[in-house]
Amino acid sequence: MKRKPNHKTITKQAIEFMHIKSAYELSRLLSCEFKSFRIIIAGANYREFNIPKTKGGYRTIEAPSEYLMELQTRLNKYLQALYCKIKPEASYGFVLSYKEEKNPMTIITNAEKHLNKEFVLNIDLKDFFHSISATRVKKFFSSSPFNFNEELATCITLIGCYNKRLPMGAPTSPVISNLICIAMDNQLMKLAAENKFIYTRYADDITFSANEKITEEVINNVKEIIMNNGFVLNEKKYRLQSKYRQQTVTGIKVNTKTNVDRRYVRNVRATLHDIKLNGLEKAAMKHYKTILIDEKLLNTFIKSIDGKINFIGQVKGREDNVYIRLKVMARELEAFERKAIV
């Protein structure tokens, strides 16, 4: 497990990044010989593949080449440090936390902000990464507070973008999207404060909560701010929930306390049972609604189940009996032992 950096380290990294003036200085900061640096970003290679979605359709993943991935990982460290110093308090997703931090920004602390509210409004941003163009990224790094020159802004854009947009699969995409969202977050925070609402954003999931009715006028203002900032709402995932029905934030129930939906737990249990009865491949075919199953997708399937079990443990607590039983069920399955995931 990686150690969390301390506040002093994060501050140092943020300052170092802000002080670079050229592509050459960026290459030195990222510990890459300048000639190799130019070759890597000039010929940025990605491998595209599709992963079936649980509810049908496919999600395209754009995986960078090994050398580009290394460069992006190093750049991500500095961008995360910088974002940590300037982030709006409403941003919770993919945020670096440091050792001294008592309440790190997580999917749990994000949901906790909306506990025991009369109304919860959830808005999802459509094609979040892909909606951020390379032109927009370059313009962002060319503007205040960076004011990087043409060469430097272009280099950062080339490292972080693919097919003229943020790719789904690069380690830099989450933090660059967070940086791009700073203006929108500040505008939505101001709107929330004026109406005595709570506002948070976890990546592409936007949430407002209030003890007063969230009017159509306010909702239209929210939509206008989002669209003016270059994003599109996913109308299928837009919902306003009252306290008399189940309220969820990023998949976590928030009516009275943070908890996991029973249906979510039942689905995980049913999937484990299906693997036990019918084997890994048939269970994966049923899960993804496809007959095209390979070793890579089987690994993805197991990792997704393991991730769901750990999510349940994160929300309910590692001592919770439901989490413990699911963990035991997974460990008893030969498929999980063979893949060494759990």
Structural class call reads: alpha+beta
Based on CA atoms alone, the radius of gyration comes out at: 22 Å
Look at the structure and give the mean pLDDT: 91
- Strand count, sense and closure of the main sheet? 4 strands, antiparallel
Strand content: 5-15%
Could you explain the architecture of this structure?
It is a single chain. The protein is α+β, with helices and mostly antiparallel strands and 342 residues long. Helices cover 51% and strands 12% of the residues. The strands form three sheets. Strands 4-5-3-6 form a four-stranded antiparallel β-sheet, with helices on one face. Strand 1 and strand 2 (58-64) form a beta hairpin. It starts with 6 loop residues before the first helix and ends with a helix. The mean pLDDT is 91.
Can you give keywords for this protein?
51% helix; alpha+beta; 12% strand; four-stranded antiparallel β-sheet; three-stranded antiparallel β-sheet; 342 residues
